[in-house]
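Q: My labmate handed me this sequence with no annotations at all. I'd like to see what the chain might look like in three dimensions before we decide whether it's worth expressing. Could you predict it?
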Amino acid sequence: MEPVDRSGRARAFEVMVAMRDGIRLNTFVFLPESGGSRWPVILHRTPYGMAASDAQNQTDCTNAWLPSAAEPFRGSILRGWRNIVAHGYAAVYQDTRGRHGSEGEDRVYADDAADGYDTLEWIAAQPWTNQMVGMSGSSAGATTTFAAASMRHPSLRAFFAQAGASSIYDDVVYEGQSIEMERLWLWVARNIPGLSRSHREAAMRRSGISGAELDKGAASAAARNARLDAARHADPPFIGSADWLRLPLTHYPDFATWQPFLDEIITHPAPDAFRARHNFRRTIDIPGFHVTTWFDIFQTSVLAAFNDIQARTGTQKLWVGPNEHSFVYANNFWPHDPYFAWFDHWLKGERTGIMDQPAVFYSPRAWIDDRGNYAPDDWRHAERWPPPGTRPHRLYLHGEGSLSPDGPGSGRAADHRPRPHPPHLPCRTPHRGRRDQQQFPAPRP
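A: Here is what I predict for the chain of 445 residues:
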């Protein structure tokens, strides 16, 4: 065990934690230097890497990731081990299966429920825990949190999940019952560099190719990704790109070699047992703090998780702020930071007042153009979501691309005449306008 904080207030060690099938996952543990021999624990599991971006060794806990002082809210791992330990918790980071320093193959969340449970089981057996464990994470880290919570390990008492999916297929891959290829391919291509050595070796064995050929495929995937991403910014987006309009649904060149589980993901177009296993929220029954934005790509999934679990437990909180997916990382997104008040209440039994307010706290402004000068001083409380007084509106898509409350039979005919060039559609693809939910700055509406 090594000191990792010059102040002497933290100790750390690295361990490869064995899962039920023998695969070992790279894990960092950070313990307070004083305050007793057993502590409550906050666990993060992430596919994005838990070592610092410039770390040469993915298993060196002295180079563990920390948020920058300028952006303390940014990252899949929330608040950082130094802040967690300073608040009297043990902090545990873990690379998910097949990612960075962990063994096994990455199967895009398919193993995160079982691996999360096995990790919690390992933590519960350690001499430094008091059996009071919380989990937290953002984006993909929120999804791994939902996955682990779905298994109902008795030591997991609460979670804090922001801007992440609670049901992979219903809300992400097949939201609206159509395959969201943009979400799949752009995300997968960007994450090829984080696949672990063992995943790489398995890909070579499966495809019968050499390491040089696999590297060539990675370079080709990166180039294809650049073209796909450029098409996203075109006007109009996507439809002038042969890569988007002619891509195969399965066995996609380069991508499928590195991540063959994607073929499994997109071959379940109808609800079945495979898809049900990835609906993590349906079995969660512990207190949860949910954070999203009005135009988060995962907004519908976060809202569904809050409502489903709240109906069973009455112990959920929901915060909804303005703008897109990434705005949750801005310092001025937050009216105040509820993170430690939440965990202090549920893991330490302290009266922090976090449960005295109504369940929902939201911004009445859905979009803020002046992000830098935004002040979250007008948020409102509500007992439920949607807030009382909300009325649903049904809108219809018309032939010229507009949305209107005028339904069928309104006399607005669709224009299907062939055109020499792609039309400029006032109502563009869902990801082009304010509902841009990706990991990129949102374009102006």
